[in-house]
Every structure is written in C-alpha cells, then in structure tokens.
Design brief:
- This is Alkylphosphonate utilization operon protein PhnA.
- It holds the Pfam family YjdM.
- Belongs to the YjdM family.
- It comes from Acinetobacter ursingii ANC 3649.
- It is built from one helix and eleven strands, in the order βββαββββββββ.
- The protein is mostly beta strands.
- Helix content is 5%, strand content 28%.
- The protein folds into two domains: 41 residues, N-terminal domain of TfIIb; 58 residues, SH3 Domains (SH3 type barrels, Roll).
- Strands 1-2-3 form a three-stranded antiparallel sheet, with no helix packed on it.
Length: 114
C-alpha cells in the first residue's frame, strides 16, 4: 500500500495513524479525502515539476530580459530566499531579490529548484 505525498510540503515520508495521514517533516495532518483539486492547483512548481516553498533557492534556466531595461538575467543566475505569490494574476508567482538587479518578480516556469 502506497501513501500519498504530503499536500503541504510534498514529503514522501507520510504515515497513517487511524484515519489521519501525518507528515513528520512539516507536522501536517489530513484525511486523504480532504485533499481537493484546488489544493493541488495552489502548489507552485518549477520548470521540472518540483514543488517550491518560501525561502527556497532557485536557478534561472534561460536568459530573461528585464522589462524597461537593456539588462538580461543570464542562465544559471542563482536566486536565494524566494517568496511565493500564489494569487499572481500576471503569472509572476515568485518575488525575489537578484544581486545586481534588485527586487524582481519571476515566473516559476523559468527557474529550477537549486
């Protein structure tokens, strides 16, 4: 019998206690039927499908033009301590500070978890 990954942190080390599923990494407790499709859609994933969380470090996977500037963020640029913005209407769901560029918003489809 295979238990599902934690819906909060995607840990694979979940275990069952009665009718509850428990994650030992983030202490999340849930019933398997409570995880809805809406919760799965709220997860922000990188270009390779890895779930991102606040505070992660990511690497840019393609050259990105900076709007309103002639600057380019090069492939391989490491961005530390990201903040996720799940309700971003324009698709820029990562808020971060990039050395040499300052405060910026990125799309998760152009980064990979470092």
């Amino acid at each position: 019998m295979s238990l599902p990954n934690c819906p909060k942190c995607q840990s694979e080390y979940t275990y069952q206690d009665g009718d509850l599923l428990i994650c030992p990494e983030c202490a999340n407790e849930w019933k398997e039927w409570e995880v809805s499709q809406a919760d799965a859609e709220q997860l922000i994933k990188d270009a390779h499908g890895t779930v991102l969380t606040d505070g992660d470090s990511v690497t840019v996977i393609k050259d990105l033009k900076v709007k309103g500037s002639s600057s380019v963020i090069k492939v391989g640029t490491k961005v530390k301590t990201i903040r996720l913005v799940p309700d971003a209407s324009d698709g820029h769901n990562i808020d971060c500070k990039i050395d040499g560029f300052g405060q910026m918003k990125l799309k998760s489809e152009f980064v990979k978890k470092a």
